[in-house]
Amino acid sequence: MNASIEMSYARRVGTPAAMTVLYDGSCRFCTRSAHAIQRRFGRAHVALRNFQEPGGLEPYPSITHDAAMKRMHLVLGDGRIFAGAEAFARIFATVPIVGWLGWLYYVPGVRQLADLGYALVAKYRYRLFGRTQACDDGTCHLHGA
Predict the structure, then answer these.
(1) What is this structure's pTM?
(2) DSSP string computed for 125-144
(3) What are phi and psi of 76, to 5 degrees?
(4) How far is 84 from 73, CA to CA, in rounded Å?
(5) Residues in Cβ contact with 73 at an 8 Å cutoff, skipping those fewer than 6 apart
(6) Where are the alpha helices (DSSP H) in the chain?
(7) Domains and CATH numbers, the chain
């Protein structure tokens, strides 16, 4: 990344860990996606939090376990929270040069299709992608299929 793009990116993202991604650490797809986001933006800008760990949602009282099971959540440094497909759109919007593509989510019709697709993948994620090794021992009976 060249210096001018990097400086522009840093101004938009703000302080370290300007984004916190709350993900389902029991889901292989969710875990891989969260780590891919962090690799793309770096640990200084994206913090990951597995909401399945004890106390994982305590800092976020407005996000219930049920809500977290249905959608990935993105918490920005200023406290704003985005969920599901909109969270991905917000993350994508911070990518230098092509970030404007993230705002396509807000075009009428695109949002509804993206939300529907996201909801379907989220609902069947364990069947489609499996559980992480932490769940392979059967201790994740709470999660539903």
Answers:
(1) 0.75
(2) HHHHH-B-GGGTTTTTGGG-
(3) -85, 160
(4) 6
(5) 21, 22, 51, 60, 63, 67, 81, 82, 83, 87
(6) 3-13, 28-41, 65-70, 85-92, 110-123, 125-129
(7) 14-133 (3.40.30)
Token look-up 């911070």 returns 94
List the alpha helices (DSSP H) in 42-74: 65-70
Quick: pLDDT tens for 63-111: 999 999 999 999 998 999 999 999 999 988 887 777 888 899 999 999 9
Spatial distance between the Cα atoms of 24 and 137, rounded to a whole number of angstroms: 17
Considering only CA atoms, give the Rg of the chain: 16
Q: What strands lie across the sheet with 81-83, from one edge to the other?
A: 46-50, 19-23, 73-76, 81-83
Residue with tokens 């299929």: 145
What's the residue count for the chain? 145
